[in-house]
Amino acid sequence: MNDILQFEQVTLGEGKAVEELSALASAIVKEHYDPILGAEQNDYMIQKFQSVAAIEEQLGNGYQYYFVCLEPDRHIGFMGMYQRGSEWYISKLYLYRDFRGRGYARQMLDFAISLAKKAGSEIITLNVNKYNNAVAIYEKLGFERIRDEVNEIGHGYVMDDYVYALSLRDELKWAVLGTGVIANEMAAALQKMGKGLYAVGNRTHEKAVAFAEKYHVQKVYGQIDEMFTDPEVDIIYITTPHNTHYEFMKKALEHGKHILVEKSITLNSRELDEMTALARERNLVLAEAMTVWHMPVYKKLWKMVAEGKLGKVQMITLNFGSFKEYDMKNRFFNMDLAGGALLDIGVYALSIVRSFMSEAPDQILSQMKPSPAGSDEQASILLMNPAGEMAAVSLTMHSKQPKRAMISCEKGYIEIMEYPRADRAVIVDAETGKSQEIMAGSTEDALFYEMKDMERAVRYGKTEEMQLSYTKDVMDIMTGLRKEWGLRYPEERWDS
């Protein structure tokens, strides 16, 4: 059984204690970081951050320093931390080498958590040098890596760090609006995350009751508006038809709910811009449930392209064809349900285009064939951005096409089949013709990745993975196209 650690606080004005802390910290940091950074850089860091003068200055600025002890006056490590905004930041958490690997890190973290909660913080963050084997320890303790940082520390030295965070918030509670295919997948994804769906609402109450029984949902609302006013709900997943999104989004945001909204997120740019402004005003996360943003294979491919491994992107081509029977009353063609190829399947293709282009397209040409109901049955779209990157998109709702994406670069091309939820891609070298298969993630876990990223955005403010700026670019393209086609849905307003 591990010994119980004790923590002795060092306060400003305790000269001897500060000197002891400086000597202890210098010795431990030298032992720890000399092999990683080299003695010269580490000595500079020790002088800058662990000297008596540096520690006294930090204490004066609100730092809290503690000796880590096995018994009074037997110091085996030290901790340094402070509050910054809503975060509790652990700047230093060290033990002598001989005392590592004994489970003491858990006790030290528990102590830091108690201080953070006392201060009213919801998140603990810390930086870990990427070459530090403590990375594995923090992940085991439940921390999540939320970003990378390169920090200049003077004299030309830098620290190449991972930033880790641990949320102190209670488990986030999800509610789903709608009971269709996506809602069923969402409930299954939550179960895979080890949690259950808190609540469900639907226009047809009986369907909501049946859904709740199937997935052991805690709460069923008699009226949809009860979902927005329920103080227990943190995140609402809106899975209803496109033309209902705006109304539901507005109510949810006005009542302080984070929202994940099935594609297409809104009918047009005006609606999206209004909801984005409202979310920003209320400090809430608003995101489109676009699987492309969250599939691991795309994150790997975007990194390869950004690093220039395939050269500059030249041409992107995408196809998406789905054969739907000519029933003008179903949602695929019905104008009253915002039917049509662009908002239903074109949003996937254009999201792929935007994600691989270095900037949004500013030149767009198109052709569109209407269905008997007046919705866009099929379309071909050409796009080019200021960097000269081009794309061609073919869409149809009444003939089958492969869901195929090809991103042609200077040094090779990427081919992706079934791209909305892809888990593999093939890269073909332009010179040798050799193929390389890239695999990451799993198609059936698409909503799991989506919802994990949403929770990270809510817990840690890691909103960049939700790609709202790309969502806006895609919505601007689609709105511009429909204006050009004269395709306005009943009661839709394009402008304020």
Structure description:
The strands form three sheets. An eight-stranded mixed beta sheet has the order 15-16-17-14-18-19-20-21, covered by helices on one side. Helices cover 36% and strands 29% of the residues. The chain is built from 14 helices and 21 strands. It is an alpha/beta fold and 496 residues long.
Outline the secondary-structure elements.
Layout (H helix, E strand, L loop, with lengths): L5 E5 L4 H23 L1 H11 L2 H9 L3 E8 L2 E11 L2 E9 L8 H16 L3 E7 L4 H7 L3 E11 L2 E11 L6 E4 L3 H12 L6 E3 L3 H11 L3 E2 L4 H5 L5 E4 L3 H13 L3 E5 L6 H14 L3 E4 L6 H11 L6 E9 L19 H16 L6 E8 L5 E9 L5 E7 L4 E9 L2 E6 L6 E6 L5 E5 L6 H15 L7 H18 L11
Parallel strand pairs: 4-5, 8-9, 8-11, 9-10, 11-12, 12-13, 14-17
Antiparallel strand pairs: 1-2, 2-3, 3-4, 5-7, 6-7, 14-18, 15-16, 16-17, 18-19, 19-20, 20-21
Helix pairs in contact: 1-2, 6-13, 9-10, 12-14
